[in-house]
Design a protein that fits this description.
single chain; alpha+beta; Alpha-Beta Plaits; 2 domains; 6-stranded mixed beta sheet; 11% strand
Amino acid sequence: MTDTAWTVRGLVRAARRAPGGAPERARSAPPAETTLPDTTDPAVASGTPASRAALHTAAAERLAESGRWEPAYRHLREAVRLLHGQHTAPRSPQEEMDRLRRAHAEAHEQSRRDSLTASYNRRYLDERLAALLGDRSTGTGLCVALADIDHFKQVNDTHGHQFGDRVLQRMVVELGRGLPEGAFCARYGGEEFALVLPGEDLEDGIAISEAARDRIAGHDWSSMHPDLRLTISIGVTHAAVATAEVDPLIGDADLLLYTAKQAGRNAVAFRRGAGSRVELAGAAAGRRSIPQPAEAGTGTAGSSEAP
């Protein structure tokens, strides 16, 4: 039996279960000639939804008995529509196509979003970075900043994982504030987020990252818990388009993030050029000890071994 046949059978049962639906009747042998009720007759069209649904159901059953599954399906769909109070006119082919396109667009958008925070996910981050790095119109290149919530494990251990989930959701909102047009935030994994800043040079990327760090440190988290205080550490790097790849770029930012953590957390770490030392931005620049990583990634300006 075809899939359409099973669909018709299911719709028959749904129509019978609905209030005012067609009654059950004993199976009979297919008639020699299939005579269908005229559902377009004005007298029929002016009847109650239940009576019109019953006629559509009867028509569908007769068509199904003779193996005409497609028209049977259309009658049953109309019967169910009537029985469930959906009195709008059937969609035209163009309307149905538009509906399917909207549904596809929504599904595509959902596939690019993190299910917990609704920010962009790792898949979108990788795809978008690859596209940006191949786009010469980006001009001054782009910056990528990796931000990690400091001591987030303690938040989960103290308040529970559900509370930690709410912290992540709030963090996405706060990180997104103040980003320039065209920039976006994506969840990289766990409590780590990526800020992608197209068209920004390194100095702009440092300033934007430091503003985000300061914003998180100064945010009033007491609405979530009176004792909650949060900070983030950030590693920010810059790449010229068409000269860098996604993995090395992310690797450089991750190494700088790790350096910011080692330097005492709540800091933004960066390099000004190939072979240069790692520095900290803002007030953290005055810290006495800034560890220098032995090796960085390859593919960006700050990728060589630190002195």
